[in-house]
Predict the structure.
Amino acid sequence: MKPSGILLFLLSVFILLIAGAMIFPKDGIRITDDLQLRFFTARDIFSSEPVQYADINRILNQQKLINDTVLTAIADGSIQGMDTLRANADSLIKSITRIEYPPNHPDLLQPFFKSLRNSPSSGQPIRIMHYGDSQIEDDRITSLLRNRLQSRFGGSGAGLVPASQLYPYGFSMRQDNSENWYRYTGFGKIDTTIQHRRYGALASFCSFVPPGHAGKADTSEAWVRFSKSPYAYQNTKSFTQCRVFYSHNSEPFLNELYLDNELQDADFFPSASQLKVIHWKFNSPERELMLKFKGQSSPEIYGIALDGPGGVAVDNIPLRGCSGLFFTLFDEQLMAAMYRELNVKLFILQFGGNFVPSGLSNYTGYENWFSNQIRRIKKLCPGAVILVIGVADMSVKDKNHYITDPNVEKVRDALRSAAFKSDAAFWDLYAAMGGKNSMPSWVFAQPSLASGDFVHFNPRGAKTIAQMFYNAFILEYHQFEKHAL
């Protein structure tokens, strides 16, 4: 082909592409819920304007300067007198995204702060339950918060865990199980063979004999073993008491406790229809703890708590795919009894991410549903305080770059409104991490702070978020202390 012919062909193609760009719908054509056809525009071709992602360098750099001493100075107004920080005082104060309160209840957290201040001498651990979706899996976010609070107020252990983990966890504690455990969840895809709503505080229960099979087979045996993780914080590695929460076994079962492979205790437990607790105390933490269960009937095991004798216990309760709308669905008597036994004083609710892709025109429904969950928790655990953590930034791909999902701020606002109308506190994670178009900055940071799905923080980023939340939380505590004197 002659050069003139090639040039004519290229011009024709270019003209056709420009024409297509002019007549193709601006928002594209949706083929399915997950597939959308889009065409480039003239602006895409000729614009040299770079994509602007949020600048998080200032946020990250200032976090390195903040510690408990600085937070105390901010609370009592003396930070301006600290020579090394005087020039950065204002920016450090502004870098902390403050916890928000309902308009008429600015002292909402004070009952918990009073319990926290008295925790070393309370004689039992005061409990914080951190519920969330997959954003907090593998003790992400919770682990650092637990460590910082236990280091300051006392306490030890990993808290409440299921008898059988659905996903392989290993950061804060190594947990191994026999293969004959059955786990039933009260959220997501619910097993229709379960004819009750007794799921307990972890929104799930475990059994080593399937429901309905009691007495129909030979004696079954199952075990769960806990050992120290080399990655865990020192406080988490230690625990001096173990409690098993169970009920609804139609026949007696045998339980055995082993410490470092040596049998320490064995007992038969009769049939039960109400919540029961098996409780052991140890003089010192051991390297390995194993529980064996034997019987023709398995109890519904709602959780195993590994705690210290006092101080603070912090539970990590990740519920993958959950939007936090399950509290109103569960057996009230069981939930209330379990919360009472656990001495829960603070609930942290971190949901919303799974509701962002729903694409609703408004989120008033989610706001009302979530508000109902908060009210139910207050009914189940009177006197406990509730703090809602808003949704993180989540990105969707827009042609050749990433932008904040347009529903993120709507869900964030719905969660804040739900918290305020139900007398709960709120912390804006979206704002704290940088706001609009900030997730790409966390993904592309060196080293990276979030995964390539542009939704989840990686362990390094989760640690940063946990530190930011701790800063906001402990600043409120310092201010409580200042006025309590």
The mean pLDDT is 89. Residues 57-155+310-485 form a domain with the Rossmann fold fold (CATH 3.40.50.1110).
